[in-house]
Design brief:
The chain is of the alpha/beta class. It is 38% helix and 19% strand. Helix 8 crosses helix 12 (353-364) and helix 10 (299-312) crosses helix 12. The longest helix has 25 residues, at 109-133. The structure holds nicotinamide-adenine-dinucleotide (NAD) and sulfoquinovose-uridine-C1,5'-diphosphate (USQ).
Length: 382
């Protein structure tokens, strides 16, 4: 298939582009390299050294003979996007290209507005460009499990049947997101649902959980193909942060009691989920929702797992409970459905001690690159 991967220079997008290319798909990356600029703004870095996008795709071509085309530009520049669509004529458009950090979106007014404009307007542009240039193209949009929040009922995959005053309907599952970033995803979902209904486009919204890990089979092939790995308090995510904290001898930073429970998946499953979704497209006019995670953990359980595995590797690890910088439930019911991708063939790579220690060992190699001032949280929701 001809597939565009927007956000193909990022943590999920780069390994996805490689995986799809390796499997014989014709891959085009769009990215404005904004993520690299946010590192500069925050005086932070990826734990792993990463090559430029140009070096990455050149090395991929040398190693495999496969070409990944790249377009450096912004989804918010419609003329640029339209021209890429005209040239690439995609059958699938995988959309990772958003500002994806909840703390970044909560820094101040400017960052909140930037996040929502970047994400919501970018996604609207993608929808218009598909409609104008490739109306059969299947849009595979990265949403997030955090759109649902932590309701006191089971979380369904996108829709819920409700009986009210004696009448029944199947309606979008209620959304209670926890940051301006998560809210941007909710706004995207409603825009796309509407667009499917009125224009007949085909969209799959992948409500992805928190992704952990670093390597896939393809990124391991050469240091120039290495994936980025975020550990700072703004872009680093729970499990990856704990692994890196353990590697540098920092206390594991559990926010509050640590009872916050979320869906998680390995980066190796992210790339497979995208392939499965591309190969099983939504119908024309369908707004389809998959919950893309494989297991649920509380933050404290993850910290305990990391402590156990790092201690087996000879490290000394302490867990600390910081005052929670976020406003969120710390003790709550959580039971989310995730059967649709598995019904289509996903075989989850679960989080065993062996998996965790392999990631830990890859992290330890680069521990001297950590800028320790960036580890503690400094963005407060209140
Ligand atoms: P990332 O920041 O590493 O990658 C996003 C990429 O998109 C970056 O390379 C950035 O430069 C690019 N980008 C951002 N805005 C753009 C724009 N307007 N035009 C062009 N390019 C733009 O993020 P990630 O961790 O790879 O996440 C990818 C997607 O998956 C995001 O939409 C995120 O919300 C979603 N997601 C991520 C996780 C996770 O744990 N990482 C979990 C659930 C959902
Ligand atoms: N947390 C800690 N300690 C830390 C970091 C986080 O206890 O050092 C807690 C947070 O308070 C929160 C939970 O861990 O309760 C998850 O936080 P996170 O930073 O790992 O994840 P989140 O902010 O939800 O965002 C990440 C990605 C985002 C994606 C989302 C998936 O950055 O792009 O959408 O995970 S989900 O959480 O399912 O919405």
């Amino acid at each position: 298939m001809r597939i565009i991967v927007a956000g193909g220079d990022g943590f999920c997008g780069w390994p996805t582009a490689l995986y799809l290319s390796q499997r014989g798909h014709d891959v085009t990356i769009i990215d404005n390299l904004a993520r690299r600029k946010w590192d500069k703004e925050l005086r932070s870095n990826s734990l792993t050294p990463i090559s430029s996008l140009e070096e990455r795709v050149n090395r991929w071509k040398e190693l495999t003979g496969k070409t990944i085309r790249t377009y450096i530009g912004d989804l918010n520049h419609y003329d640029f996007l339209r021209e890429v669509m005209r040239q690439a004529q995609p059958e699938a458009f995988v959309h990772f290209a958003e500002q994806r950090s909840a703390p970044y979106s909560m820094i101040d007014r400017e960052h909140a507005i930037f996040t929502q404009v970047n994400n919501v307007v970018g996604t609207l542009n993608v929808a218009y460009a598909i409609r104008e240039m490739a109306p059969d193209c299947h849009l595979i949009k990265l949403g997030t499990m955090g759109e649902y929040g932590q309701p006191n009922i089971d979380i369904e995959e996108g829709y819920i049947e409700i009986e009210h005053n004696g009448r029944k309907d199947v309606l979008p599952f209620p959304k209670q997101p926890g940051s301006f970033y998560h809210l941007s995803k909710v706004h995207d979902s409603y825009n796309l649902m509407f667009i499917c209904r009125v224009w007949g486009l085909r969209v799959t919204d992948l409500n992805q959980g928190i992704v952990y890990g670093l390597h896939t089979e393809e990124t391991k092939l050469d240091p120039a193909l290495s994936n980025r790995l975020d550990y700072d308090a703004v872009f680093g995510t729970a499990l990856n942060r704990f692994l890196i904290q353990a590697a540098i001898g920092h206390d594991l930073t559990v926010y509050g009691s640590g009872g916050q429970t979320r869906g998680f998946l390995n980066i190796t499953d992210t790339v497979r989920c995208i392939e499965i979704t591309a190969e099983n497209p939504a119908d024309q006019g369908e707004f389809r929702v998959f919950n893309q995670f494989t297991e649920e953990f509380s933050v404290l359980d993850l910290a305990k797992m990391v402590k156990r595995v790092a201690e087996q590797e000879g490290f000394t690890v302490n867990i600390t409970h910081l005052e929670n910088p976020r406003i969120e439930k710390e003790s709550h019911y959580y039971n989310a459905k995730n059967t649709k991708l598995q019904d289509l063939g996903l075989q989850p790579n679960l989080l065993t001690d062996d998996v965790l220690s392999e990631i830990f060992r890859s992290v330890v190699i680069h521990k001297d690159r950590v800028i320790s001032e960036n580890v503690l949280p400094n963005v407060n929701w209140s």
